[in-house]
Design goal:
The chain is mainly α. It has helices at 36-55, 59-77, 84-87, 99-118, 126-136, 175-187, 195-209, 216-230, 242-247, 249-262, 265-301, 308-320, 326-333, 337-349, 368-374, and strands at residues 3-4, 8-10, 19-21, 28-29, 323-324, 354-355, 365-366. The strands form 3 sheets. A 3-stranded antiparallel beta sheet has the order 5-7-6. The protein has a two-stranded parallel sheet with strand order 1-4. Strands 2-3 form a two-stranded antiparallel ribbon.
Amino acid sequence: MMKEYNAGTYILHKGYKPFVPSFINEDINWKLEELSSLLQDASLWLGKLNSYADLIPDIDFFIKMYATKEATNSNRIEGTRTTFEDAISPVEQVKPELRDDWHEVQNYIQAINYSVEKLNELPLSIRLLKEAHKILLQGVRGAHKTPGEIRKTQNWIGGSSLQDAFFIPPEPNLLPDLLSDIEKFLHNEYIQVPELIRAGIAHYQFETIHPFLEGNGRTGRLLIILYLISTGLLNKPVLYISDFFEKNRMSYYDSLSIVKQNDNITQWLKFFLTGVIETSKNSIKTFDEIIKLKKNVENKLTKIGKKATNGQRLLELLYSKPKVNSKLVSEELKITPATANGLLKAFVEVGILQEKTGFNRNRFYVFEEYIKIFR
C-alpha cells in the first residue's frame, strides 16, 4: 500500500526546533501523474543533449569550460563574487580581494572532475560525496569546518543563532540513518520512480539534511550530475543545472521551502524538471555554436602554413584554457618561448586570438569568440 508523502516534522530540542525529514526509501505516492507531461519533455531534451554530446569530436575539451561555468554559478548561489571571466583567468590576473573566491571555484571544478572520474570505479555513494566535499573545501573559507566529514554539531540556515534561525536541519545523531536512506533510495530497483524524479527528490532531501558544516549546496548540486551519469542518462557531464538555479535563485529557495511547509514536493519537482528542460536546450544551443566556431577557426588555421601542426595543438589547449600567455603555451605544448610567441602572433594575425594588454611584455591572449558562447 502506497503512503502519502510527508516531508517530516519539527521536533523541540534544547529550546530550538530542528526539522527531521521523513525517510524516502519507501513506497510513497510521489503524484507522478501531475508531472508526466514535464517529465516526458525533460527526458526527451536530456536524451537529445546526450546524443548530441556523443556526436561531438573532442568533447572533453569543451566539457572543461562547462565545468567552469557550473562551478562559477554553483558558487555564486552561495555568495562568491567570481565571474565566469575571472574563473577562466590565471590567478595573477584576478584582483587580490577576489582570489579566495577564485580558489573556491577552482576547487569545485576539481571536485566535479574527480567525482565523475571516480564513478568508473565506485558506485554513487555518500562516501564519494564526502571525498568530493573534501576537495571542495581544501585551503579555502570553510577549510576549518571539517572537510569531507559529516557534521558532529548542529548547524542552521539564516539568522545569527539557533534561536533566530530561518531553518534548522536535523540533529547530528540522526544523520547516518538519513544519509543511508538517500543512498538506498538512489539504488533501489524495486521503487517505481523515474531516474530524473529520483535526482530531484535526492537533491531536495540532501539539502534538507544539510550534512556538512559548509558546502552543502554545492555538494547537493554535484549529486544531480553524478546521479544522471551513474544511471546512464548522461554519458558525459554536460547538464549543468546551477545556471538555471542561479538565474531563478528565489524560486529555487522557495520551491525547496514549500516542501517542508505543506508536504508539496510536486512544486519542487516541477521547478527541477523545468530546469532540466531549459538547461538541456541551452546546452544543445551552445554545442551548435561551438561546432560552427570550430569549423570557422579550422579554416583560419589553414592560413598559418608550417605552423599548422602546433596550431592544432594550441587550438585544443584554447578550448579548455581560452586565456593564455606565451609562458603557458610554451609549457603546455612543450615548445620554446620563441616558437610559442610566433604561434600566438600568427593566431592574432588570422583573427583567432586577441591580444588584450597592448604591452610589449607580459602579454596575454584571449579566444574571445569562444568565451562569448559560454558567457
